[in-house]
């Protein structure tokens, strides 16, 4: 049990890192700024930013209905891999921009003017795709798994710990966006290196999910705990015995036992359990009493 609790807690902490260090809060909190770097018109950027929020809501609702059909692990893998690809495209968009220093009209330091090589539709699709993949799996599934992987005796304290770690990571990502962008050389190339970091961490999340996160679809909490403990007992589905079949078999055997117990003396038609008939029980009891009386005399 301690192994299951320890492993479940470590998996959940890893998923908190995977969720936040993929850069989702950098994208959501700076969505307007990022869109303005693609579309200079503030009104257009603002409208597209509202579209990102609406799409996130719609995809989250759809993903909730797919959770028990597709499974937790496949959705996590698709989400992490999709985020990695979209972040890599955004990194390429910013890194491939050509910048030229233009003398200032006021005679001050020269200003840098950058021209994008890629069309605007490419980074826009990558930004929308990034949020879509996050909402389809990495946003909600870690919280679902928290209720399935953490044993009941530590669920309260472990949930509080994982939530605190999640918010600390969210703060660290949001706080370091401008710092890291400037450290990497400023916009636009600094943003490119920043998204390259997010893409790299999303790829690491794919590896983590493949190697460490168990699939919990269709499994009871005791089955999940046995798996976390390292036991490989086959599940009902692996044995080809769905829950309905097990119930039917139990009911049939119970009816056989009821028929045997209600059968009249001397009848052996209901004795399908390999037990003695009523006459055999009476004979054995009489023989035991005779032996007991003989020993007493």
Strand content: under 5%
Biggest sheet features: 2 strands, antiparallel
> Which spans of ≥5 residues are poorly predicted at pLDDT below 50?
269-278, 291-297
Task: Tell me, rounded to a whole number, the average pLDDT.
Answer: 82
Number of strands: 2
Could you walk me through the main structural features you see in this protein, from its secondary elements to its overall organization?
The chain is mostly helical and 297 residues long. The protein is 72% helix and 3% strand. It has 12 helices and 2 strands. It has a two-stranded antiparallel ribbon. The model is unreliable at 269-278 and 291-297 (pLDDT under 50).
SSE layout:
Blueprint: H1 2-20, H2 24-29, H3 31-38, H4 42-70, H5 72-95, E1 98-102, E2 111-115, H6 121-138, H7 141-149, H8 155-183, H9 189-212, H10 221-228, H11 243-262, H12 278-296
Antiparallel strand pairs: 1-2
Helix pairs in contact: 1-7, 1-8, 1-9, 1-10, 3-4, 4-6, 5-6, 5-9, 8-9
Quick synopsis:
This protein has 297 residues and is mainly alpha-helical. It has helices spanning 2-20, 24-29, 31-38, 42-70, 72-95, 121-138, 141-149, 155-183, 189-212, 221-228, 243-262, 278-296; strands spanning 98-102, 111-115.
